[in-house]
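Summary of Year 1 activities. Much of the first year was spent building the evaluation harness for sequence design. The harness presents a backbone, in tokenized form, and records the residue chosen at every position. We chose the following record to illustrate the format because it has been used consistently in internal testing since the harness was completed.
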């Protein structure tokens, strides 16, 4: 119970952090992990290569050539596993790529590929 209360409190108060200070409830760890990004665009699935740039308990940042609207459903496939989540924001970069902030869906979390059931058929 204390954890959910402290999460809610830190989330509610993080807007009070000084300008330039880390405002995330959970710090991000830098990584450089190649991935395949699949975004549901509303009528179709769009896929491209990308790179996971940092990760935290409930989110990650991925760089890709795909532009995505906030709220879009996203799947990120890496050698080590898969993440399903929602795009929180999309920022254009000078090199014609996009940085996507992704909130990880807590129902799925990070699924290790070795732990996923195999399809027989």
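For this record, the design step produced the sequence shown next.
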């Amino acid at each position: 119970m204390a954890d959910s209360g402290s999460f809610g409190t830190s989330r509610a108060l993080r807007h009070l952090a000084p300008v330039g200070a880390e405002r995330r409830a959970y710090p991000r760890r830098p990584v450089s992990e190649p991935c395949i990004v699949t975004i549901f665009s509303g009528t179709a699935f769009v896929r491209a290569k990308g790179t996971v740039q940092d990760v935290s308990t409930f989110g990650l940042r991925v760089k890709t050539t795909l532009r995505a609207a906030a709220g879009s459903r996203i799947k990120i496939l890496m050698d080590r596993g898969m993440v399903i989540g929602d795009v929180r924001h999309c920022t254009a970069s000078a090199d014609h790529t996009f940085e996507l902030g992704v909130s990880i869906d807590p129902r799925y979390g990070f699924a290790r590929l070795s732990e996923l059931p195999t399809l027989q058929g």
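Residues 1-17, 116-121 have pLDDT under 50 and may be disordered. Quantitative recovery figures across the full test set are reported in Table 2.
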